[in-house]
Specification:
The complex is a heterodimer of chains A (about 220) and B (about 350). Chain A is of the alpha/beta class. Helices cover about 45% and strands about 20% of the residues of chain A. A 5-stranded mixed β-sheet of chain B has the order 2-4-5-7-6, with helices on one face. Chain B has a 3-stranded mixed β-sheet with strand order 3-1-8. Classes of the chains: A alpha/beta (about 220), B alpha/beta (about 350).
Chain lengths: ~220, ~350
């Protein structure tokens, strides 16, 4: 499990963030000595630092600068400040990326993964693949492989299937699917979603022989392994 | 009352002197060994006070007359008119009056400015503070499931929208320090705004199509305010659209100017209201019928669009459509804009 150091003084936020990041297999350190973040950092062996700007005693810029003197660990600024001045300052002090509060968890995870990939170079070689009952979904290629048969998926189908595979045995609501599609710049309505789901069903049925996407009326859809 | 005040202030030294003389005279007479009786002393003082009062009445009525004359001349006629050449003593008094008015005015302004600054500072700080509980609440909502989760996310999104609007309104007063003209890809920015407001569209099942007919993807403007304007237009549309509506956003170039048209198939705006949608505090029949509107969003959009040399206009047919159009100044006038705001931060 990769360690993340979360330098954030709002206790409510850091606890919630810790819970959310733990689901993504990160170990999160939130007990910070705000008088000496540098020692907390060097003792933590963190692979990534999430830094707030407004902190007790010294601000995030200061600690970022201090950490940069001893380490090249990726630093992500997470702040409610959003002026260009703050963003430029964060980058000048050695920050790698900037995210403003309130933020979406998906964006935070995407940024963390991208920074980890850039800094430590892993998962680069391996193409991300999700599997389900002998079926392999190749995310970068937008294709599924089942018993040596390749099938192309459209952008929307890929997004929906990814979501279902990421939440295996759990209900995925239609609203959740809509949000994922809109985050992917597909500004579609409910009808389009229904059409896309039906097409995906047909493709899976033709390949696997059974339609594994279960409809939970009024709740959403679910894939059961 | 104001005239009394003005009069006494301009004559203050004179009256202070008179009172001082009176006191000195009294004390000298009182302490000296002359054989004046108390009654005589009181009589003397009373006589002097009556004299001063008579002088005051006469002087004040003269003063009032001059003041009125000045006021009339200053407001009605041209000050440089030769006929109005005043006596030197009049000029001195006039200067006194004007100085006093300016002094009082500036004092009042200073107090108000300071108050406003404090409120602005507090508002700014507050908006940054409120963002943290919004972020925490969103994360908590993410852990829920079902209808409640969706409803809560929607409400949180509304809070976010209103706080953002408040932040921009407080920023609008000193926009000069905040403008940052840079080159950007308009489609990318529009998509970002749509993603920001996605919950509103999804809730009403509205679909959006972005059609880009531009041969290049370069736009010079301030990113934040551009996002704000597009956001306000889109949010406004969602309020006045029936479920399952459609918004089409079109980008094209005409006469070297970039046009962005945002068209919805909502209830439209009545002909009597359309000329006033950008007015401050204007709510219109739509706003009254459908939801609480403050009438600030579009007003500020128009104001900031003008400052950024963006022509913002609206056209509509009732019960059919509303189109907001943004026309960006051609490249050469954009250079003018840069020159005009040459003290701003500019990155290319």
């Amino acid at each position: 499990m990769d360690k993340i150091l979360l330098i954030e003084d709002d206790r409510h936020l850091s606890i919630k963030l810790k819970e959310a990041l733990q689901k993504w297999q990160f170990q999160v350190i939130i007990d910070i000595d705000f008088n000496d973040c540098l020692t907390t950092f060097s003792e933590s062996y963190a692979k990534l630092v999430i830094m707030d700007i407004g902190l007790p005693t010294f601000d995030g810029f200061y600690w970022c600068n201090k950490i940069r003197e001893i380490s090249s660990v990726p630093i992500l600024f997470l702040s409610s400040r959003d002026s260009d001045k703050d963003i430029v300052m964060a980058m000048n002090m050695g920050g790698d990326d900037f995210l403003t509060k309130p933020f979406s968890m998906d964006v935070l995870i995407a940024k963390i993964n991208a920074m980890m990939r850039r800094a430590y170079g892993y998962t680069e070689l391996q193409e991300p693949v999700l599997t389900f009952k002998g079926l392999h979904l190749y995310l970068n290629r937008s294709q599924i492989l089942y018993e040596e048969v390749w099938i192309d998926l459209t952008r929307n189908e890929l997004r929906i299937l990814t979501l279902l595979l990421e939440h295996k045995n759990k209900i995925v609501s239609r609203a959740q699917m809509m949000r994922a599609l809109w985050d992917d710049d597909q500004f579609v309505n409910e009808n389009t979603l229904t059409v896309n789901i039906n097409r995906l069903r047909h493709k899976l049925e033709a390949l696997l022989g059974t339609d594994y996407i279960q409809t939970k009326k009024g709740l959403g859809y679910m894939l059961i392994e | 009352m104001k005239r009394f005040k003005l009069y006494f202030i301009s004559r203050r030294y004179f009256y202070i002197l008179l009172v001082a003389i009176l006191i000195i005279l009294n004390s000298v007479v009182f302490t000296s060994s002359t054989n004046l009786k108390d009654v005589d002393l009181r009589y003397l003082s009373g006589l002097i006070i009556i004299c001063i009062f008579c002088f005051f009445l006469l002087d004040f009525s003269r003063y009032k007359g001059t003041l009125l004359r000045f006021h009339k001349k200053m407001t009605e006629a041209h000050i440089l008119d030769t006929q109005l050449l005043l006596k030197e003593s009049d000029m001195v008094m006039m200067k006194e009056v004007i100085d006093l008015i300016i002094f009082n005015y500036e004092k009042e302004l200073n107090v108000k400015d300071q108050g406003l600054e404090e409120i602005e500072m507090y508002l700014n700080q507050w908006i940054h503070e409120i963002k943290i509980p919004i972020a925490v609440s969103t994360m908590i909502a993410d852990q829920l499931s079902g209808v409640q989760k969706e409803e809560l996310l929607f409400e949180l999104e509304r809070i976010r929208h209103y706080t953002t609007t408040a932040l921009y309104i407080s920023k609008a007063n000193h926009y000069e320090s905040d403008l940052f003209i840079e080159e950007m890809d308009p489609v990318k920015i529009i998509n970002e705004v749509i993603r920001d407001y996605k919950i509103f569209f999804i809730k009403k099942d509205i679909s959006i199509e972005v059609a880009n007919h531009l041969s290049h993807d370069k736009l010079m403007t301030d990113k934040k305010w551009f996002m704000y304007i597009v956001g306000q237009i889109l949010h406004n549309s969602t309020k006045y659209m029936d479920p399952s509506g459609h918004i089409s956003i079109e980008l094209f170039s005409r006469d070297h100017q970039i046009h962005i048209g945002i068209k919805d198939n909502g209830i439209g705006i009545s002909p009597s209201d359309i000329g006033r949608v950008f007015e401050k505090g204007f709510v219109g029949s739509n706003g009254r019928l459908h939801s609480k509107s403050t009438g600030m969003g579009l007003y500020l959009s128009k104001k900031m669009a003008e400052l950024l040399h963006i022509r913002l206009s609206v056209s509509s047919e009732q019960y059919k459509y509303t189109t907001f159009t943004l026309v960006f100044a051609a490249i050469d006038s954009e250079i003018d804009l840069l020159k005009q705001h040459s003290n701003l931060n500019i990155s290319q």
